[in-house]
Amino acid sequence: xxxxxxxxxxxxxxxxxxxxxxxxxxxxxxxxxxxxxxxxxxxxxxxxxxxxxxxxxxxxxxxxxxxxxxxxxxxxxxxxxxxxxxxxxxxxxxxxxxxxxxxxxxxxxxxxxxxxxxxxxxxxxxxxxxxxxxxxxxxxxxxxxxxxxxxxxxxxxxxxxxxxxxxxxxxxxxxxxxxxxxxxxxxxxxxxxxxxxxxxxxxxxxxxxxxxxxxxxxxxxxxxxxxxxxxxxxxxxxxxxxxxxxxxxxxxxxxxxxxxxxxxxxxxxxxxxxxxxxxxxxxxxxxxxxxxxxxxxxxxxxxxxxxxxxxxxxxxxx
Length: 318
Ligand code: BYC
Hints:
Blueprint: H1 4-16, H2 29-48, H3 50-54, H4 63-88, H5 94-102, H6 119-140, H7 146-174, H8 178-197, H9 209-214, H10 222-240, E1 250-252, E2 257-259, H11 265-275, H12 279-292, H13 294-317
Antiparallel strand pairs: 1-2
Benzoyl coenzyme A binds next to helix 2, helix 6 and helix 9.
């Protein structure tokens, strides 16, 4: 009989010695489940995250801006695909994961349920949303599951380009007319708090953190990453000449970090539960895209099937 306790002990020893876990290695069911949950939520976030930015492709203010935005959104699609593939190595079907997103069973990042109403929002998304994403994802390059960590290395490189293109949009606005400066400030006022929410609940309320840290799926806690993000972002806001919308934001000499105000957790959970400003719109857009793109999938499957049959027939004749 297989001794689960000794398998679990050996598994933890591998994690503690920084040996990556690969798809065919033994792993506890709960580790597999946690990874499927986190990686699939991450993949869904990349795909849904294309929508608020896609809203501005036709209205980008110049050809150069349009090209960069298009490239960024295509990168997000690529991230989604690497992550779905990484998730499939854990024994789940991509179709099932996508069904879970469409049925509302699977979560995706709360941030993508807010509207992108002005061009400055595209800059703010790049600077703050991609900035927060990188902060979280750099640690995931060292996550214990091999396929996830390798996917994250490439994703992080692309995300840092995204963050820079966002910041550059804002820097341009900050040197523009009074109206452009006001548009920049307004976008940052709306995206600041939702960006801090991306890191998830405070550590004391985080369901999965303790176990995920033990398994080295996560290397830093939600609060640690949020603090790191605030500390880095304050200086960048100064360069833009804007005010971050938090009266409690101030340097704490003793802690060596910025103090910041309390997040509106009621708003966070409300958005996570599906009641944010754009949750319904986002899901409707995803389902419409899936239905309208079904013929492509059908054609690809029919072609693969035809190729398979031809190969079988050729090998029979030979
Ligand atoms: N939104 O125990 P906790 C991007 C859920 S960036 C919605 O702390 P965990 C992109 C959490 O799932 C965004 N739900 O969870 C950027 C859990 O519920 P379940 C994607 C959230 O997993 C730019 C419950 O709250 N990045 O893609 O230990 C352009 C308790 O939380 C949120 C990733 O997904 C949230 N913000 O830690 C385009 C990074 N926060 O599952 C695209 C990978 C928490 O028990 N993920 N919840 O029902 C992670 O690092 C972790 O999953 C989190 C949460 C830090 C997000």
